[in-house]
Amino acid sequence: MKDVSALLEVRKSIRVVDATLRDGGLVNDFYFTDEFAKALYLTNVKAGVDYMEMGYRADKEQFDESKFGPWKFSSDEYIRSIVGDNDTDLKIAIMADVGRCNYKEDIHQKNESPVDLIRVATYLHQMPEAIDMIEDADKKGYETTCNIMAISAAQMDDVKAALDMVCQTPISCIYIVDSYGSLYPEQIERIADVYCNAAAKYGKKVGIHAHDNQKLAFANTIEACGDKVDYLDGTYCSMGRGAGNCAMELLLGFLKNPKYKERYAIKFVEDYMLPLKEQGVVWGYDMQYLTTGLLNQHPRTAIQFTKEGRKDYFAFFQEMQNID
């Protein structure tokens, strides 16, 4: 049985990361207004959130700027237009996808940027380039973390080998990423043990980024927290790709440290997130995302199902299982 004190005590090593502009941006092609971004930034400051992930640093030669909002590219200049000098305790993060970021040129020296943390996202087969990106960002003066995606579809021996490789880099934290929203709390417990053992060997931290395909993002996040995982990702009103993520307002309400103030999160949800839904922006748990979560599949098919306005959930379930 888990030690109850692990869930009740104030653990000063915990760091809360807001991924709304980045993961939420996958829902609306990153078309957030400046007012929204500024209000989100100020909410995170008041709520005690530790890091705010302000989109991707995507390669403009691969992605057409005219088809995306600014947080797909999150330039230093645009971030600065929202946060100014960021004279607060909140740290600014961006995500750099392996193979989709021209990191040598587009990630500048830290002393020229408002960004504090580069979060490198990678699949297992991309580990050599991920390590090069981490080392490049470290040399430029940034904190770094690494998200190994789609681990629910990987062999654990391969994951362990990748952990040993990446934990020897200058990263501060390695993330458990439930990309398909297919994992259950008992699996998270076992995975957290593997990650924490690998991280402890090299003095690193462990984080979790959960998806809500089976309505388990919050449950899996607090399970990981009880298993001594320190970096916890959330998004306001769960806004994120497909079924979304762990709800920030739930996470802040759960944590016992008085520095975290969920009332500001609740106010932001009322003022900004619910209006987004009323405007027709679609995300969150639904039967098509349950299907891909149950079958441990990438949600791209469920996202397309949603875009087409389909409601034939059983037929979709059969399609995903190749049942006639």
Description:
This protein has helices at 5-8, 20-23, 25-28, 34-47, 76-83, 103-106, 127-139, 156-166, 185-201, 217-226, 248-254, 262-278, 287-294, 300-307, 313-320, and strands at 15-18, 51-56, 91-97, 117-122, 143-148, 173-177, 205-209, 231-234. The chain is of the alpha/beta class and 324 residues long. It folds into two domains: 5-278, TIM Barrel (Alpha-Beta Barrel); 287-320, no CATH class. Strands 1-2-3-4-5-6-7-8 form an eight-stranded parallel barrel, surrounded by five helices. Helix 11 (248-254) packs antiparallel against helix 12 and helix 13 packs parallel to helix 15. The radius of gyration is 19 Å and the shape is globular.
Task: From the structure above, extract its key features.
15 helices, globular, 324 residues, 42% helix, 13% strand, alpha/beta, eight-stranded parallel β-barrel, TIM Barrel
Short overview:
With 324 residues, this protein is an alpha/beta fold. Helix content is 42%, strand content 13%.
- Which architecture of the largest domain would the CATH scheme give at its second level? Alpha-Beta Barrel
Class per helix and strand makeup: alpha/beta
Order of helices and strands: HEHHHEHEHEHEHEHEHEHHHHH
Number of strands: 8
The share of residues in helices is 40-55%
Share of β-strand residues: 5-15%
Distance between the termini: 44 Å
In CATH terms, the superfamily of the largest domain is Aldolase class I
Number of structural domains? 2
Q: What is the overall number of helices?
A: 15
* Biggest sheet architecture: 8 strands, parallel, barrel
Unreliable stretches, pLDDT < 50, 5 or more residues? none
Radius of gyration, in angstroms, nearest whole number: 19 Å
- Quote the average pLDDT: 95
CATH class wording of the largest domain: Alpha Beta
User: Which overall shape is indicated by the principal axes computed on the Cα atoms?
Assistant: globular
